[in-house]
Write a structure and sequence with these properties.
Layout: E1 9-13, H1 18-29, E2 33-38, H2 41-51, E3 54-57, H3 63-77, E4 82-85, H4 102-129, E5 133-138, H5 142-145, H6 150-170, E6 175-181, H7 188-200, H8 207-213, H9 219-230, E7 239-242
Parallel strand pairs: 1-2, 1-4, 2-3, 4-5, 5-6, 6-7
Helix pairs in contact: 1-2, 1-9, 3-4, 4-6
Length: 244
Amino acid sequence: MTYILDGKIILVVGGGSGIGAATADLCAQRGATVVVADVDEDAGRAVATRCRGLFIPVNVTDENSVKAMAQRIDERFGKLNVLLQTAAVLKGAFVPLEEFSLETFRTVLDINTTGSFLCAKYAAPLMKKAGGGVIVLVSSGAATGGSSSFAYGTSKGGVNSLGIVLANALAPEHIRVNVVAPGNIDTGMKRSVIAADVARQGKEAEFEQAIAESNLGKPEGVAQVLAWLASDEADYVRGLIATR
């Protein structure tokens, strides 16, 4: 049986949990050779083992770490077909502006925005070796609809803009770039925001009710979008894609 991702080497950064893990699983099911990269080595290795793929530890804020990740892929496969960059962090939920620390602001932008830039920077040359490829950056509805964190919303707005610039710059190299902006998805990060909001209101006992009322989507739903964008079936798709 032929699958739509047969023969593709797909790197899922942030593949140890949440949307990244669900996407790694689905890409493997659809025939891809999956490389899982994550700062959490235990979680990342578990997903890579499940996918029968390769795990590479990476800190997306460290250029040398990202460069080493790309070198490992080059040595093992000699190319890369797809980068799915899902790694992100949310800090400072519901912290008032006057209390929001510069350190937190910089940390979130460093991981979410600069990390996306570094991953694309070192993935693109490997795609050129393959004659082209696909880059999908995961943003958030928070970039355009508002966020509980000044840093998170700003960082994801930067991811949106980075995707637009990359799409224009890499099109001549036959590298297709998209940005996917999920809404409320049931991940550990989203649950931490809901918990912070419940605690802020002094209603800790109502956490499960708040989760239910949030009508969270499943990571597997976003994974369906990412896996399809990684395939040749999505060749005509460009730009920003919003999901629930």
